[in-house]
Amino acid sequence: MKKLMKFAAGAAITAMALTGCGTTGTEAGSEPGSSSDLPIGASSEGPARNVRVPQESEPLSAKSAEGLKTFTYYWISYNSYAQQTGETDKLDELSSEECNYCTNEIKMINDVYADGGWMAGGDPRVTDIHPKLPKGKTTGTALVEYSETAGTIFNADGKKISTIEPKEPTVLTVKASYIDGEWMMHSIEETPDAELPAAGE
Question: Do 173 and 191 form a contact (C-beta atoms < 8 A)?
Fold first, then answer.
């Protein structure tokens, strides 16, 4: 299976694991904070459970560099959520049809879960995001400082069918547009030679 980059997101710009952001979903009849609704990571025993749903925040709808930055985190978090749960509808809504990476990622996730399989590991780290939205424009870009841990894809029997190698720190370049009050992802590319802005810029 083609190796694909793994993503997630968080609410602050720090060097940290960014999986599991948002509100924990609870099972029917369970009390908040009880052991039955605690997030459980995927393993050969089964897929992840009670995965936290990414939350929206106010800057997400802003036509600004900050809005682009927040959207980038949000898209990344929903990609991670989809990888852990197989639920890709929201990710599809956030992605333009012209985004080849988005389309391939959604298809890969759907294929894994349609056959009863699941994904584990591949935890991403986003160190920082540097957005750029030219004045008066609706399309901007962002440089994402990124790395990931190793991951595994299992089939319906819990047998390992693919290993995702860890990714050393690199830079991703994303492009998104602000359309009808919402951001839409247009492209994601790995650009390790991209020049990051100097501190304070």
Answer: yes
Residues of the chain scoring pLDDT < 70: 1-35, 200-201
Under 8 Å between Cβ of 183 and 71? yes
Residue 111 has which token pair? Answer: 């294929």
**CA 3 – CA 5 distance, rounded (Å):** 7
Nearest alpha carbon to residue 22 among 35, 9, 13: 9
Which residues have CB under 8 Å from 71's CB, separation 6+?
Answer: 60, 94, 176, 183, 185
Torsion of CA 196, 142, 78, 95, to 10 degrees: -150
pLDDT in tens, 101-113: 999 999 999 999 9
Which one, of 198, 150, 146, lies nearest residue 173 by Cα? 146
Rounded Cα distance between 162 and 181, Å, is 39
